[in-house]
Fold these 2 entries.
Entry 1:
Amino acid sequence: MKLIKQTTFSACGQACIAMIADKPIETVIRDMGTDGPTSIGQLIEILDQYGIPHAEKNVRISKKNPQPAPFSILTVHTNAGYTHWTLLYQGTYYDPEFGLIEGEYPHGKITSFLGIYAERG
């Protein structure tokens, strides 16, 4: 997995998709039609468009689901007060704003995740 940084303050979703799909972020922005904020629905749509297998829906972190899937897009409520998408892959956070993060995620609370089922080379 190669870290791709977001190109605007709100293009974290596009950057996560670019990392998963192994495409330039500019391509994902063009295909999504926005470099602005994205919803989970928009992320699911572009994953489907690219033929990337994923869970049916975003799953809330709870007692029943205390840990995100090993490869997933995470919904983060940041310490700074905004919602942010980041990627979890093989125990490392590939954060399009903050970079690669090992260990506990320090920039906010992870509240939900969308499992990704694609194999990565």
Entry 2:
Amino acid sequence: MKGPFSFIILIVLIVILFLSGQVYGESLSCLICHGTSEGKIFIDGEKFAKSVHGTLDCTSCHLKYIDTPHRSADKEIDKATLDMSSSLKLKSKTDPVALSACNQCHPDVFEKVKGSVHGQNIFIKKKSDGAFCTDCHRSPHYILPGKSGQSPVDFGHVMETCGGCHEKESISKDYGFSPKVLERYKESFHGKKYILGHKRVPVCTTCHGSHAVKSSKDTQAMLFGKNRIKLCGSCHSGANTKFVSAITHKPMGRDNPIPYYAEKGLIILTISVIAGCVLHVLLEAYSIIRDYIRKGRIEEDESREASVTGE
């Protein structure tokens, strides 16, 4: 009785969710299996309902299926989607067609990603380390609005999201960019303000873009040539070539002298101020102790003279 009784309770709960407007259409039947921990691919129905895709049917993305138990759809899948899915097998072994179905609702964004340095890695170089939709937004079943505060692409989390790949030593070696880029950012003026909680400070997507990230050698890149001066000038009026050269992810040293020597100068200045304060306190203490000892000696000498005169 335990098995059938549990199944009935599950059906009742799903119906309640459906009637309350939290789960819609064909998603209801899919969650009968995938909404339980017994299913091979578990989908949290409550989290799915709160996501930006919560009002969609499962088959809106999983185009190969029409209903349970995974009966193949009679409708034909368009050639463009199928062609993209063949490349996206690198990113989704379970259902690459569902991943390529992002193009159905987000065609403009999809094209930007395909033309980006991340998309070229996947579609042209046939590499799996290029970032795609789910690498940044995470599971399509739980995607939250970008400004929700909990989204991995929200202002407060995007730095760690980008750093998840760009901090990997293997990737930095393969593509020749500075290692420990997240650490370098945190060392910068922008990074320190970000850590302190400032909201109007540039993060990864501010300077590199999001969906249409270009190689630094691409003339269309936000950081290429004079584009960089224009970008920095949007916040720093009067920015010039020398100014923008100081903003970099390169390790501080001879190749990046401005922030390197500025940091060294600030460290020396800070130590000097602290040392000066300590020295001042010590000299003041010494002066007080010296005056106290002198005063004691004077009083002692006066006391002796008084005693001698009194005799």
